[in-house]
Every structure is written in C-alpha cells, then in structure tokens.
Amino acid sequence: MSGQRVGVLGDEQLAEAVEAAGCVAASDDPIAVDDVECVLVDGDRSVVDLVRSTVDVPALIVDSEGLPSVPRDRIGAALDRLFGGDASVEGHPVVAVSGPFGSIDAVFDVALMAAEPARISEFSVADRDDQIARFRADGVVASTPAGSHGYNRRAGGPVVASGTGIASVVPIAPFSTSAGHWMLPIEAVELAVERDETPVELLVDGRRERRIDPDATLGLSVVDTLETYAVPELIDDPAAN
Fold first, then answer.
1. CB pairs under 8 A, 24+ apart, for 15-22?
2. Where does 3-150 have alpha helices with state H?
3. For residue 56, how far is the Cα from the chain centroid?
4. Would you write out the chain's pLDDT as a tens digit for each of its 241 residues?
C-alpha cells in the first residue's frame, strides 16, 4: 500500500501513524483534499467536521462513541487491511434539520435547549404534523442511530440499531416524570418550541447554532450518507456494546 494518500482529521499522532504505515498523510488542510483514498478521522468531533466538509470518500474512524471505529493503536493494521481489500463500507444517515433559518446537517443528534441555566421551556414532538407529545423540560433531543449511543442514552433514551432509519426522541430533564421517549422514522420527526418565556437554542451534533423562535417547527430529513470503513476484527462496534 506504499504511497496511498490518506486524509487526516486529527492530531499529529494520526498523521505519524499514517506515515508509519507507508502511506502519505494529507494533513495540511485535510477537509479540502479531494484526491485522497480515504480519510482517517479522530473521534466524533472530527466526524462532524468531515460531514460539514466537501470530502466525499469513505472514512476510517478512530475512537468514536457512536460509529464503528478502530483503536488508536491499531491504525497501521487497519490501513494495511483496508488497502489490501479486506474492509467493507457501511453507510450512516446524514440528517438535515430544517426551519425558517434554512438547514444544517447532522450525523449524531439535533437538540432544542433552554439557553439559560435553571430555566425550562415547553416543547412538542410531532410525527409528520400529528402532535404526539407536549411537555415542559430543559430541552428535547432527536438522535440518529449513531447518536443514540451518546447524549440520548445518558438522557434515558434507547440505543437504536444502525440501518433502521429510526430516530430516538427524548425530553431532557422533563418537569414531569410521566414524560416518555419516542421511536420515529427520521423523516417523520418534527420538533417545536411552544412558549415564549425562555430563550431556546438549537444544538446540532453538540454545537450551538442559533436561537429558535417560539412556534417555529423544525423538521428532520435524510439528505446524505456518511460512508465508513469496517475492518474485520479491528473495529470497535458500538452496536455490540
């Protein structure tokens, strides 16, 4: 596999691991590189950078919480197997959250959160315009299968199997203990802020994006696919945990 170009989204240790494996690390401006064979991505924060970039090649992910990934100390072995043809490609949905502001892509989760500490607001969850729940809480999060392993699980939501096209929707610190959680097709999920009493922010993959006006409805849709490499025996798969 000598000379294969590998994009690197991460620290210098990842670039060193690529070079040690006999490849060329394209790490000067990796999310702008178009001629790499694959992209080595360091953790979930860098996965988000990749999804928001223009790179359109499969990724080999290192140390992810929600996506199949390789341990940092097995990068060389994984690249050797990958370029030897012993790897498969898996697809994970990239979801757009759309509203009056336009749309923003997500790979893990979309959340509405009260912007001020110790304040709650009122939110609703709908399934293609049919409201299924309304509740007072700190916020609400809708997670893809990849995102269901993260904040969703810590908030009491279920882990969702990859490839199902299902989102887990969970209230965050609900005021009422009777609030539940919901499993809905990603394309059916709509979230809204129902009261003008506390500023509410939109967070996409953990990043604060903007304030959301009351009565604005946000819809989810699948707009793309993130392709990742799975290398037999070297991959840590969250679905197995």
1. 17/72, 17/75, 17/76, 18/75, 18/79, 20/76, 21/75, 21/76, 21/79, 21/80
2. 12-20, 43-51, 75-83
3. 16
4. 557 889 998 888 899 999 999 998 887 665 555 678 899 999 999 999 999 988 888 999 999 988 999 999 999 999 999 999 999 999 999 999 999 999 999 999 999 999 887 788 999 999 987 899 999 999 999 999 999 998 888 888 899 998 899 999 999 988 876 668 899 999 999 999 998 888 999 999 999 999 999 888 999 999 999 999 998 877 666 665 5
For residue 51, how far is the Cα from the chain centroid? Answer: 9
The separation between CA 208 and the C-alpha centre of its own chain, rounded to angstroms, equals: 14
Q: What's the token pair of residue 36? A: 């790499």
Q: Which two tokens stand for residue 216?
A: 């604005």
> What residue type is assigned to position 38 of the chain?
C
